[in-house]
Structures are given as C-alpha cells and as structure tokens.
Write a structure and sequence with these properties.
The chain is of the alpha/beta class. The chain has helices spanning about 10-15, 25-35, 60-65, 80-90, 105-115, 120-125, 125-135, 155-170, 185-195, 215-225, 255-260, 270-285; strands at about 5-10, 40-45, 75, 95-105, 140-145, 150, 155, 175-180, 205-210, 230-235. Helix 9 (about 185-195) packs parallel to helix 10 (about 215-225). It binds 3-hydroxy-3-methylglutaryl-coenzyme A and magnesium ion (MG).
Length: about 280
C-alpha cells in the first residue's frame, strides 16, 4: 500500500505541445536518462496523425534510437489501426511496450482531439485492442476531461464512469484519469473518483493531473486517500496546455516525488536523476 507507481509522460505529453521542433537526439537523451532513474513506465511518443501533432511524427526514430532498459515499459499512444500498423513496424524486438489508447469523457474534447464522437472513438479502438491482446502487448486506457472540458464545461462524474465501463468492456486494461486542462479541484476529483471506483478498482486506476490551476498535488492527495497508487507526471513540469497559454504543464515528476517521499510512500525512483532530467527538460523548452 506504500508503493506508488509513477508513469513518466514528459517525452510524450510534455513535448507534444512544444512549438520548437525538438531533435530526436534530444528526446532520446531525455528518455535514456529517465530510464536510469528507477522509473518503470516511460511514455515516449505517439503514432497519431502528424498533421494533428507534428511534434510526435518522429516517434519511429525515437523507438529505434533509445537504449531500452530491462524492466522498463515504454508506452506509446495509438488512436487507430493506422497507428497500430505504424507501431508494429517501428517496434524493436525484445523491448517491453505498452499501447495507450485514449478517449474523452466529453463530446467537445472528443471532437477536437479525435475528430469523432466518444462512442465512435471507443468503437474505433476495438481492432486496436484485439490486435494488442493477440500480440501480447499491454494496454492502458486514457480518459480525458474527467472533471472539466475546455469546450463543454464541467463534466459529470457519471459520464466518466460510463466511458470507463466502455473501455473496460473492450479489455481489462488499467485506466488513467486525465484532468486535461488542470481545472480539477479536490472536491470535483473526489466526486469523479467515487463514481469511477464503482466500476473499476483503485488498483486499476491512475491519476493524470495537469497543473494549470496549481491544484495537481492536492488532487493527487485526494486520489491517494481514495486508494490510487499510480500517477502520471512529467519531469520539469513539461507540457503546456493549448487552451491556457503560458500555464504550467503536467504535474512535475520531481514535485510528485518529493510529496510522496514526505508522506512516507516509496517509488523506487532516484530523485537525483529526476532532478538532472528536469534540468534537461527545462533546457529543451
Ligand atoms: P482524422 O483526420 O479524422 O482521420 O483524424 P482520418 O482517418 O480521416 O485521416 C486523416 C489523415 O491522417 C490521413 O492522411 C490518414 O492517413 C492520416 P491523408 O490521407 O490526409 O494524407 N492518419 C494517420 N497518420 C499517421 N498515424 C495515424 C493516422 N491516422 C490517420 N495513426 C486521428 C483522426 C485520430 C488520426 C486524429 O484526430 C489524431 O491523430 N488525433 C490525435 C490527437 C493527439 O494525439 N492528441 C494528443 C494526445 S491525447 C492527450 O494528450 C490527452 C492525455 O494526455 C490525457 C489527458 O491529459 O487528458 C492522454
Ligand atoms: Mg495529458
């Protein structure tokens, strides 16, 4: 109960919003440093349309050039079969990967991010999930806008629970609950978690808090109270929000680590290496 699993999303969720074209070598250096930190989950890219997210277009090169660390699982986002095929072509034999599929709890964000309705986005994942299970590759499901949507406003906890059920009906995958625009507050996060915990156990849930509103650590504390023991974070707080220019990005791994240590949790992650990675991440911005 004292162990918390950190899922580092800086190289993907952090860098995907950067305007500067970041050279593959810089991404690879960051990922390889993170790989030496004790982190067991590092999200390294996306097989999405390069027109939608140009910064992730070099993901196949990233897969080819990193020095995979045994025991580390490298995650990539896959929205459809086109992305699945891209991943299968790029994957390096012997490396442990996780395929992350992603949907939203709100229609507005689903249209903006995936160009389709929530239901269609889940339906589109059926062949991806089937292929990943057949290939023995682990799955993770993201749900965005779990408390607030930049287009639709507050999101009902029941809507999040419904999408969680839809994803888990596809396959028994762990779910990451995304406060995409960092608008969640402890009370709204608690209400959302109560609804989702009715359809999935805490052991299968992760918190994914953007820190736009400065409440990410308080929201993590609420999630810890509810029994969650997995959180997503990005070194150096990488990742702005396209809907809030200049605002902080994902909650910073080094801040989450410090909080967890102070609260007596263990993570297996070396804060000194995370501090180095945070410096490297800041220089990349
Ligand atoms: P679409 O335009 O509806 O798709 O986009 P389409 O099937 O009509 O295809 C349009 C073009 O894209 C075609 O090319 C396809 O071949 C190509 P064209 O004929 O025009 O030259 N295409 C692809 N190319 C490469 N890889 C692919 C792919 N699929 C189609 N996989 C689509 C639909 C899903 C593709 C698009 O909406 C998309 O790529 N969306 C991804 C957006 C994204 O990556 N967002 C960020 C990640 S989610 C996130 O950050 C939230 C999270 O952090 C949690 C949280 O904070 O809440 C996870
Ligand atoms: Mg995110």
């Amino acid at each position: 109960m004292d162990f918390v699993r950190l899922h580092e999303v800086g190289p993907r969720d952090g860098l995907q919003n950067e305007k500067r074209v970041i050279p593959v070598a810089e991404k690879v250096a960051l990922i390889d440093l993170l790989g030496r930190s004790g982190l067991r989950d590092i999200e390294i890219g996306s097989f999405v349309s390069p027109k939608w997210v140009p910064q992730m277009a070099d993901t196949p090169d990233v897969l080819a050039q990193i020095m995979p660390v045994p025991g580390v699982r490298y995650a990539v986002l896959v929205p459809n079969m086109r992305g699945w095929d891209g991943f299968m072509t790029a994957r390096v034999p012997g490396v442990t990967y996780e395929v992350a599929v992603f949907v939203a709890a709100s229609e507005g964000f689903s249209q903006a991010n995936l160009n389709c309705s929530v239901k269609d986005s889940v339906d589109r994942l059926v062949p991806v999930v089937t292929a990943a299970r057949a290939a023995g590759i682990g799955l993770r499901g993201y749900i965005s806008c779990v408390t607030d949507c930049p287009f639709d406003g507050p999101v009902k906890p029941a809507a999040v629970a419904q999408v969680a059920q839809m994803l888990r009906a596809l396959a028994p995958m762990p779910l990451s609950l995304g406060d995409t625009i960092g608008a969640g507050r402890p009370a709204t996060v608690a209400a959302m978690l109560d609804a989702v915990l009715d359809v999935a156990p805490a052991a299968d849930l992760a918190g994914h808090f953007h820190d736009t509103g400065g409440h990410a650590l308080a929201n993590i504390a609420v999630a810890l109270d509810k029994g969650l023991r997995a959180f997503d974070s990005a070194v150096g707080g990488l990742g702005g929000c396209p809907y809030a220019p200049g605002a902080p990005g994902n909650v910073a791994t080094e801040r989450v680590l410090a909080m967890l240590q102070a609260e007596g949790f263990t993570t297996g992650v070396d804060p000194a290496i995370i501090a180095q990675a945070a410096e490297m991440a800041k220089e990349m911005r």
